[in-house]
């Protein structure tokens, strides 16, 4: 056990991994600091609503549109049965989508595929843009896509890897904070139409069960993603 800890520590203190650790700390600050979170939470909302949209389509529902709002909330509207597995999975998908995207990004960074990650994200944003139904949503998606395009086009490979690591860390941390925020809103009785409460009405399981499930998924993704980013060769 001691040998394993020493080996892990040695790999962590490798120059590239120290860089990844610093990037992770920066991402954590961006998520925890209220002013930066208020702006960057739009990225989390895009991923959240994208998760709803993808699962809605995969479950056979018709996607009517996505709206992103200036208060960083969002709404994905789909039509189909108002109950059953399709609706349940659609509602379930939003919060885990953020963490799972961060986990996927972490894997791509450690596999030295940062440029691929950038273009996959840009492609997903272009597709999502087709479903956006309000001006603020269009602006949010276009700005996010423009930043990613600039990194992919102008940044050196090392900077691309660092930026992708930052995005991965941000999604891994950012996938957890909204769950805590939702819990607080539910305690104050201000989230009766939240994903958790809608799931509670559909399934009979308390909303807290869904919050707990999302939290565990987020923590698991963070642990695995952090291990990939910190102890595997990258940047």
UniProtKB/TrEMBL annotation:
Record-annotated membrane-spanning stretches: 12-33, 88-107, 113-131, 136-153, 159-180, 209-230
The record's keywords, sorted A to Z, are:
Membrane, Transmembrane, Transmembrane helix
InterPro entries found in the cross-reference section:
Peptidase_M50B-like (IPR049500)
Protein name as it appears in the record: M50 family metallopeptidase
Organism, by scientific name, is Saccharopolyspora rosea
